[in-house]
Amino acid sequence: MVYRVTRHPILEFPEKKLVTITVNGKKIKCYEGEPIAAALLASGIRVLRKSPKLHEPRGVFCAIGRCNECIMKVNGVSGIRTCVTPVKEGMIIERQDT
Predict the structure, then answer these.
(1) What is the pLDDT of residue 52?
(2) How many C-beta atoms surround the C-beta of residue 77 within 10 A?
(3) Quick one: fold of 18-94?
(4) If we measure between CA atoms, which residue out of 87, 30, 85 comes closest to residue 60?
(5) What is the domain partition of the chain in residue ranges?
(6) Res 13: pLDDT
(7) Residue 67 backbone dihedrals phi, psi, to 5 degrees
(8) 95, 48 Cβ separation under 8 angstroms
(9) DSSP 5-17
(10) CB contact at 8 A, 71 and 95
(11) Model pTM?
(12) DSSP three-state, residue 34
């Protein structure tokens, strides 16, 4: 199921290129240039990581790159803030539970 605003009475959404990324081993379709976190939320992925001490689910919090709630491993690099990192074709994204 996709959770994405596609029609709005005031805003316009320009056509974007559809790309494929891999998230925790699963391929998903999303739009090039949108924030990774937005693509994951639109695909129904709400838990981006788990807290290190209590292993509680964490997702998007500030959505402006100021906190660490949305960090994930992107193309082998840990600690990437997915709320401000744009999607590119073929990205490999993994949950980071530390």
Answers:
(1) 86
(2) 8
(3) Ubiquitin-like (UB roll) (3.10.20)
(4) 85
(5) 18-94
(6) 79
(7) -110, -175
(8) yes
(9) ----SS-------
(10) no
(11) 0.88
(12) coil
Q: Are 68 and 87 in contact (CB under 8 A)?
A: no
Here the tokens at position 60 are: 């998007």
76: left (phi over 0), alpha (psi -120 to 50) or beta: left
Query: What does the block give as tokens for 3?
Result: 């959770």
Tokens (6 digits) for 81: 């803030």
Give residue 79's pLDDT.
94
Q: Which residue has the tokens 């959505």?
A: 63
In angstroms, the Cα distances linking 13 to 7, 24, 28 are 8, 28, 20
Weakly modelled stretches of the chain, pLDDT under 70: 1-2, 98
- Which pLDDT score, from 0 to 100, does residue 1 have? 53
The most distant pair of C-alpha atoms in the chain lies apart, rounded to whole Å, by: 44
